[in-house]
## 1
Amino acid sequence: MDWKHAKTLFIIVFILIDIGLVLVYFNKVNNSIVQESNDQSDVNFTKEGIDLPNLPSYKNKEMQAITADSKSFTSNDLEGVYTLSEKDTKISKDLDDENLTKDSKEQTFKSLINKEAYKGKEYHQKENNKDKNKVIYEQNYDDLPILNNSKGEIVFNIENGKVKNFTQTYLDKLKPGTGDNNSKQKVVDAKTALETLYYNTYLTKGDTVESVRLGYYSVVKEIGGQVLVPSWEVKVKSKEDGKEKTTLLYVDAIKPESTVLEES
């Protein structure tokens, strides 16, 4: 045996083993750093002085962008009961029930909608309505609301505490948008959406998050149609110049870093 060559071979093997061990060590260190960094990136909203409600959970929820058109009502849709109040895209109906008030139970309104409105079963009461003179029902798609959209809602108008009439608009042909990049994707959780707002200074010390909802928000509102993307709606109460201010913010639920929309 050539011991000189064997010695050289053993040295090379040991060097390779040492290099492998060093690489394994650095991988572990890097993974530890990444994990620590991720832990540190979580915002402690309590310590930051920002009040949060109970956040909704949609574990493993997958969504995609959808499209829709404003419904143009015809005489066949109206059936002699409604009247057109805005071109042909909004209908209205007067109500004579003296017992129907703003404080009537939700079930009462829902029963009336299911019976009287066009495809009323697709509408559900808006959770964070702040208008004292209106009771608002939002059109839903795939069990989630169409957020803050005047083209897909039923509005009960209140006068002197009594419900006088309701108006209705309807988003027709709701369906997934076409395109290779519009496959269903997992949505981020509510806390991630709030962290996006925090890092973009939409949430600051002293703010109160009053509600957080998942739904579809329109990013393209054309006469001929709309494009609605999965979004988190965040209702924030803050103080500006000593006065309370309420703001609605919308965060893309699939790519939160790319879209923060504000609607006062």
## 2
Amino acid sequence: MEEIVLAGGCLWGVQEFIKYVPGVIKTEAGRANGTANTTQSPYDGYAECVRIEFDSQMVTVEQLIDHLFEIIDPYSVNQQGEDVGLKYRTGIYSTNDQHLQSAQNYIGLRDDADKIAIEVLPLTNFVPSDDEHQHHLTHHPEDHYLCHIPWKLLHRYIMQQSEHE
């Protein structure tokens, strides 16, 4: 098992989408690279994110980044949909240097690499979100209107899983 952290705007939608991708074992909504170790502090520079535990035999870092690109505007700076601000920036974070190198290579090989606004940085701090934000759209689908990801796209992989069962 390996871990990577992806930020793509509001963490509710990112978690609801990515947790159904084949090869993803576990997800945890949280805050990446802030300075505090609690959610009860003022904004400290964090990005809303999802920590992903994945089976690298089933899904690669590059494939996870492909999936991130499905749900974000990679050119947008500090905004995804209606969510605006530094905490809604897009990013790829890891404590594994190979993950970061893979992400940089992935972006660098794209024709639009010079327009991509996704930060690729070492993970220096991760703070799990409060329980009410974990799997929020699973527990409160009525809040989907707050999410920038269309419902059909949000559940693309859960629908595919259902078709194979």
## 3
Amino acid sequence: MPDLLPLLGSALVLGLLGGGHCLGMCGGLMGALTLAIPPEQRSRRLHLLLAYNLGRVLSYATAGLLLGLAGVALASSPLAQGLRVVAALLLIAMGLYLAGWWSGLTRIEALGRGLWRHIQPLATRLLPVSSLPRALLLGALWGWLPCGLVYSTLLWAASQGNAAHSAALMLAFGIGTWPVLVATGLAAERIGAVLRRRGVRMAGGLLVVLFGLWTLPGPHQHWLMGH
């Protein structure tokens, strides 16, 4: 468990740093969900927003568990090291994207669009949202929206070789994205203005790149841990 705590902290920070990307990917959807709340339910807006995001985070944890099981199967094979390298490279690509230096990662998001085409009609049927269980289910479906940041973090979590740890890391990552997306549903314009600042995007992107470099297997990891 002590070895897992730094990883959980890293996943949480990664979710926080990816807030700008989350706003771009899900900010419009978050606004649409807020507007879809019936007038008689507006007094419960915060509760419904929290339920949306709880469902979304639980879907991340589920994906982490499923891919983590595959990671366990690969843990004792030569492919395990390759999975970690791919995860690190995706994190570096994500950092470059967040900073606005390279947008090649958006091509990876196309991989999940086929699945989303099947899920989206189910999500549409849940609108308008009139109850907390409905909001929770809609959020759980929303969690499968194609997202390069989620895919990058998911591969990194799966490379740990422990399904429970993978699920916990994705849960921590999802919790890290909460502040931006919940606040977006309440005050989208103010939050968006801050996260669109070039300095904020570059700082967040650079930190994610450094995290990807730290994740990349090699002797540099021991040097970084020593410092």
